[in-house]
Design a protein that fits this description.
The protein is of the alpha/beta class. The protein folds into two domains: 12-210, 3-Layer(aba) Sandwich (Rossmann fold); 230-293, no CATH class. Helices cover 36% and strands 14% of the residues. The chain is elongated, with a radius of gyration of 23 Å. The termini are far apart. 25% of the residues are buried.
Length: 297
């Protein structure tokens, strides 16, 4: 196999994740790691998630699957069998990382938990990605994206104030969680480089999603202001209470555009005004605005 470019190119990762952790393996693979995606007999259920190539519902044509696993090698392994566990232990002995998203206790029941695997490979970094972490009152609970979004509090700020909380259409909690898992894995890798010790990384999706609306916590801590759902407006971006519209009604639907201040909005705001001007829709005050120095306080 031709070595990959990237600072993780000397390292091998065993990927036993589901949708909650797919992006973690992809990120580490993009950094050069040799990622081996391990599927159970019959294939990963995520292969049945659309959209599909040319709209052909086929486990070999899931664009969702391709998108998150296109930089990984793949094997099939039955961890429920003695032979499968034996082969997995041999893989662990030669691996540098293991990332998985099983409910806490499952791998321990198979004698493949971190305690057992660290005896096989003391340098192993074992990243466990779960909805609610390895311990605590909800640790054994299963959860999909909507439960994670609700239990983390994110849904409390999504939607119209006069209606019930909403879940974002795309399973965003999975990608947030997997991104944080990749960072935690790299921090554990740094510790291993310095000490030679492997360790287990405990990633809770609920805890990760708390940072998706961290401004709400900060506003409460600093001035006891409780953020609420604001419908078409974005909350938590102004210390004076100014609101930024996110959704704009148009003749044929809605447009999603956020007016940012400073460098963050310089190019996008200017580009929008130029486009409006080319169609005779830009008022003079927008054309005269110096967007590079525009700020929202």
């Amino acid at each position: 196999m031709k070595p990959r470019a990237g600072f993780l190119s000397p390292y091998r990762i065993l990927d036993l994740t589901d949708e909650l952790g797919f992006l973690c393996g992809k990120v580490l693979g993009d950094l050069g790691a040799d990622v081996i995606k391990i599927e159970k007999p019959g294939g990963d259920p995520a292969r049945k998630i659309g959209p599909f190539f040319r709209n052909q519902s086929d486990p070999e044509k899931s664009l969702y699957w391709f998108g998150f696993n296109n930089n990984k090698r793949g094997i099939t392994l039955n961890l429920e069998s003695a032979r499968g566990r034996e082969l997995f232990a041999r893989l662990v002995a030669r691996a540098d990382f293991l990332i998985e998203s099983f409910i806490p206790g499952y791998l321990d029941r198979l004698d493949l938990g971190y305690a057992a695997l660290s005896r096989i490979n003391p340098r192993l970094v074992h990243t466990s990605i779960t909805p609610f972490g390895q311990s605590g009152p909800y640790s054994r609970f299963r959860a999909s994206d909507i439960e994670i979004m609700a239990m983390s509090g994110c849904m409390s700020l999504t939607g119209d104030p006069e209606r019930a909380p909403l879940r974002i259409t795309f399973p965003q909690s999975y990608q947030w969680t997997a991104s944080y898992a990749s960072v935690g894995t790299l921090v554990a890798h740094l510790h291993r480089q310095r000490t030679g010790e492997g360790q287990q990384v405990d990633v809770s999706a609920q805890a990760c999603m708390l940072w998706a609306f961290s401004h709400a916590h900060t506003f409460w801590d600093l001035n006891r202001h409780l953020e609420k759902r604001a419908g078409s407006f974005m909350t938590g971006r102004s210390i004076t209470g100014a609101k930024m519209r996110v959704f704009w009604p148009c003749k044929d639907g809605y447009l999603n555009f956020i007016i940012y201040g400073g460098e963050a909005g310089r190019k996008t705001n200017q580009a929008l005004v130029e486009w409006m001007d080319s169609r005779g829709m830009a008022p003079e005050f927008l054309k005269k605005k110096e967007w590079k120095s525009f700020n929202i306080a």
